[in-house]
Amino acid sequence: MDSESIERVYSTFSGVYDLVFGRWFRQPRAEAIELLNIRGGEKVLEVGVGTGLSLTYYPRNCNVVGIDFCEPMLEKAKRRLRQYPLPHIQLLKMDAMKMSWPDNSFDAVFAAYVISAVPDPDQVISEMIRVCKVGGKIVLLNHFQNGNRFISTCEKVISPLTKKIGFRADLDLGTLLTGKPLIVERKQNMKPFNYWKAVQCTNQKSVNGNGNGNGAHPKEMLHLEGIHGRKVL
Length: 233
Prior knowledge:
By secondary structure, the protein is of the alpha/beta class. It has helices at about 5-15, 15-20, 25-35, 70-85, 120-130, 150-160, 175, 220-225, and strands spanning about 45, 65-70, 90-95, 105-110, 130-140, 180-190, 195-205.
């Protein structure tokens, strides 16, 4: 998948996106945003804001910036902002693989149903880590490759087909986070069908903001969480 292909697919899809991902995905979005542990005055980034279905779930005592690469989707999000009084939210067109902000610009970062729909998930995660402050929360709400061998094999088989409609079905969370300085604090199955997961991470990059080094393997991170008594689901 390249950026132009993805933008073309989601531009076509923008007219029915709210119908498909609106009602049935409200609760997962709201619950995942709660995992950001947002405090008053913090600055939050939403990557892949789409048509803005998450915007009303953010507390009003923070500042939110939502970015998306697809102009038709972003236009629907802007219309939503005009419909609701949400002065704490700003929307920008931006490529998540090349964000324009300096390091450590945000206290928390959220990405819903987007990390498997970008050309380079690894680069997007690295950018999220870079712009997020040390100790900040990064929450991914997405489908990841199933742990069942039979199901994961099926996902690999159908992934070339799902890419044609804008996402990959076989994205592996462990592979995605390998070498990244993220501590997985919590993994939570989400409705509908428990097909999606909310993954709450803490950004433990080096103080200089480098998101490409000093990262342990996710299994090592989970082991460290157990040692320090953190809750792991």
